[in-house]
Amino acid sequence: MSQRANRRAANKNKTMVTENSESISNPEHGEVLPANLSDMSVRDLTEYIVSRYKDPVIEKLLSALMEKISKQCHCECDAEKRARSLVISGLPEPSEDLRASEKQMDLEGK
Asked: Which parts of the sequence are annotated with region: Disordered (predicted)?
């Protein structure tokens, strides 16, 4: 089969999206997906996949993936906070009951 014929066959099998529809459908397989996939959270997408495919292996793989994603996100957030933090040794910490603006004024006054 030529490249052109392969490309045509692949294009026929691709998921078709219409601007006015609220879902994405593949007529050959009778599948309908929510149109707002990019708006769905990682957890929602995972739950949707598990609800569609009742394979226990896929469920375990997706569960492991969810754990990794949440750990990685948490680590990246902590790293970003540390990168923006400034520690000055020798200065006493202000009391915990001060507001952030008061803590800043206290620090600038030292």
From this structure: 1-35
What six digits make up the tokens of 86?
């400034």
- For residue 86, give the 3-state DSSP assignment: coil
What DSSP string runs through 12-72? HHSPB--SS-SEEEETTTTEEEETTGGGS-HHHHHHHHHHH---HHHHHHHHHHHHHHHHH
Residue 110, C-beta contacts closer than 8 angstroms, at least 6 positions apart = 91
* pLDDT tens figures, 7-60: 655 555 443 333 333 455 555 556 667 778 888 888 888 888 888 888 889 888
- Domain assignments of the chain as residue spans, ordered by start: 1-36, 40-110
Predicted model pTM: 0.39
Helix axes 56-84, 42-52, angle to 10 degrees: 170
CA atoms within 13 A on the CB side of 55: 7
46: how many CB neighbours lie within 10 A of its CB?
A: 17
Query: Looking at the chain, how many residues does it have?
Result: 110
